[in-house]
Specification:
The structure is a single chain. This protein is an alpha/beta fold. It has helices at 37-51, 68-75, 83-94, 133-142, 147-154, 168-180, 185-203, 224-234, 247-258; strands spanning 3-9, 13-19, 25-32, 58-65, 79-80, 100-104, 109-115, 118-125, 214-217, 238-239, 274-280, 289-295, 298-303. The chain is built from 9 helices and 13 strands. Helix 8 (224-234) links the parallel strand 9 and strand 10 (238-239). It starts with a strand and ends in a 10-residue tail after the last strand.
């Protein structure tokens, strides 16, 4: 059987899957990007390769995420797609009738509205990290808790405290105030989870019609406290798929499978030296910042130019 690779490269985490011809996930990896996207992808590819049966081949590759163009070049991927498309395709592969997708990641969040399998509306929040995974991690550290404990504590609360989550600084001062006037840690944690949902719906989901089935994905979907808060506030049952944190790379793999462009993927990428450099082009008044990708010392690709003068042949 033919297999297909999908990689989702984000600011916080890097995810990868290999699927078979029936879009079943046969290998998966999730790790921290740590500010080094190329190194993170190499580690993902190495892990996926180890999980595959001896002699298994990958016929096509797809890339998505914030660094998708860079990683698409590194992987020599047949498909490079934006996160909205990739997440929609991945989610529909697992849950065909989905109509609303909530996604909250490490530093950004998005909502996708679908009708009859077609994306009809979407919105993203990439300006401020308040209400995202990094926000929750900050609050957990402040409370002396492991991030995994937040959800477990939140579901025990019968009276969540009201926490302002539009800004991380305001949230922290509000949490201190709530503790000082006698709110329990359980109610404060539940309040943080509710504030994440309210912040998301009032900003990312503002003006959007939320219709069932509703799917929640991204790293924050693993927090049961936030899941329950979504259900309480929206009035809808919220589905969290076991592969919810991999929907972007699953979608990229499915798109690669459907592209009709096939060539054997080279897993030896882990042994190849890649380097990226940014330079300002001074050939015209635009002053474009051009990103160059080098493979073993030679230019592999570049982008960022707004006119033909910046093209490197």
């Amino acid at each position: 059987m033919k297999n297909y690779l999908g990689v989702d490269i984000g600011s916080i985490s890097t995810k990868g899957v290999v699927i078979d011809e029936n879009s079943n996930i046969i290998a998966q990896e999730y790790l921290w990007t740590e500010g080094r996207p190329v190194d993170a992808v190499k580690r993902v590819i190495e892990s996926l390769h180890r999980q595959l049966p001896r002699g298994a081949k990958v016929a096509a590759a797809g890339a998505t995420g914030s660094a998708r163009k860079l990683i698409g070049v590194v992987l020599n991927a047949q498909v490079v797609k934006n996160e909205i498309t990739a997440h929609a395709i991945g989610t529909m592969t697992r849950i065909p009738g989905v109509r609303t997708i909530f996604e909250i990641g490490g530093q950004d969040s998005k909502i996708i509205i679908l009708e009859n399998g077609v994306v009809t509306d979407y919105a993203m929040n990439t300006i401020c990290a308040a209400g995202t995974g990094s926000f929750l991690m900050t609050q957990a550290n402040r409370l002396g808790l492991a991030i995994e404990e937040l959800g477990e504590l939140a579901v025990k609360s019968n009276s969540p405290a009201r926490i302002a989550a539009r800004c991380t600084v305001f949230a922290e001062s509000d949490m201190v105030h709530k503790a000082q006037i006698g709110h329990t840690i359980v109610d404060i944690v539940a309040g943080v989870c509710h504030s994440v949902v309210n912040n998301y719906l009032n900003n990312v989901g503002k003006g959007k019609r939320i219709a069932a089935p509703v799917v929640f994905q991204g790293g924050v979907s693993k927090n049961i406290g936030v899941v329950r808060a979504f259900e309480h506030i929206t009035g809808h049952k919220v589905c969290v798929d076991e592969y919810g944190h991999l929907m972007g790379c699953l979608g990229a793999a499915v798109l690669a499978k459907n592209s009709g462009k096939e060539r054997d993927f080279d897993f030896d990428i882990k042994d190849v030296a890649f380097e990226t450099k940014g330079r300002e082009c001074k050939k015209c008044a635009n002053g474009c910042e051009i990103i160059y990708v080098y493979k073993s010392g030679g230019i592999l690709d570049c982008w960022g130019n707004r006119c033909e003068r910046g093209v490197v042949v």
